[in-house]
């Protein structure tokens, strides 16, 4: 059996990924603060399983506990392949660095960077013990490659995630394991995160008018369209290139 573990399945790209993988016949495990009950119905219709684990990715103890439980469940003789999609993320705080408060910084870094690092470590340890192929997929942003006024935390954590993903890929190659790590850039989508960005003031985020224009001019892709691109890439594990940066812009062009 092939399992896909996805963080942030309550809405947005995570919900679309879970739905499309279920429709493709994959077993899915969702990790989020809120359960998406529609996914249970889809799984039943497709004859596969969907399991939800409630977890606040900003809480290190919860992350450690939940990912350990999932890893112990998955890496057994019935499992042939595991995909772990680190999708959940937050753009907040959106403001200049001098306005950031410690609590907001702490939550942001835990959700965007520490949770994927903990999950990767736990799953790789379990995968190495059982020799079941694992592919970690890290959802990134173009902000990782440039400085953006008001996105100091977001740009920093996404840049850190990219470097971490590249290191995971390098290590698995050097160790000669079957495991892979890739980076997926979904570009701009019509999500709640985009709503948060558009609600920012220009003093906090200088590019806010540009993002309002994306919505007004229908330049935001649907999460289903973006999710389908990643589902297509992962549906044939033999074609996945370890360490590759997959950009939805390039894949749809």
Automatic annotation (TrEMBL):
Gene3D superfamilies: NAD(P)-binding Rossmann-like Domain (3.40.50.720). Coiled coil: none annotated. Keywords: Cytoplasm, NADP, Oxidoreductase. The keyword NADP applies. It is found in: Cytoplasm. PROSITE patterns: ADH_SHORT. GO terms for molecular function: sepiapterin reductase (NADP+) activity. InterPro entries: Biopterin_syn/organic_redct, NAD(P)-bd_dom_sf, Sc_DH/Rdtase_CS, SDR_fam. SUPFAM superfamilies: NAD(P)-binding Rossmann-fold domains. GO terms for cellular component: cytoplasm. GO terms for biological process: tetrahydrobiopterin biosynthetic process. Belongs to the short-chain dehydrogenases/reductases (SDR) family. This is Benzil reductase ((S)-benzoin forming). It comes from Paraliobacillus ryukyuensis.
């Amino acid at each position: 059996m092939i399992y896909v573990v996805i963080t942030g399945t309550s809405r947005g790209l995570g919900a679309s990924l879970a739905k499309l993988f279920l429709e493709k016949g994959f077993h899915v495990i969702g990790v989020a603060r809120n359960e998406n009950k529609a996914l249970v119905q889809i799984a039943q219709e497709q004859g596969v399983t969907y399991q939800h684990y409630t977890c606040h990715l900003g809480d290190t103890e919860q992350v450690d506990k939940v990912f350990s439980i999932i890893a112990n469940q998955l890496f057994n003789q019935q499992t042939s392949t595991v995909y772990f999609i680190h999708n959940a993320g937050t753009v907040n705080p959106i403001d200049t660095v001098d306005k950031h408060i410690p609590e907001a910084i702490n939550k942001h870094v835990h959700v965007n960077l520490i949770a994927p690092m903990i999950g990767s470590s736990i799953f790789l340890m379990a995968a190495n013990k059982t020799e079941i192929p694992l592919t970690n997929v890290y959802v990134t942003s173009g902000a990782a490659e440039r400085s953006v006024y008001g996105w100091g935390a977001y740009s920093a954590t996404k840049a850190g995630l990219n470097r971490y993903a590249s290191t995971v890929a390098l290590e698995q190659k050097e160790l000669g394991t079957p495991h892979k790590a890739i980076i997926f850039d979904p570009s701009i989508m019509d999500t709640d995160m985009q709503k948060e960005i558009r609600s920012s003031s220009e003093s906090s985020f200088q590019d806010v008018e540009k993002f309002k224009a994306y919505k007004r001019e229908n330049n935001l892709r649907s999460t289903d369209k973006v999710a389908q691109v990643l589902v297509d890439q992962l549906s044939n594990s033999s074609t996945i290139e370890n360490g590759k940066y997959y950009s939805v812009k390039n894949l749809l062009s």
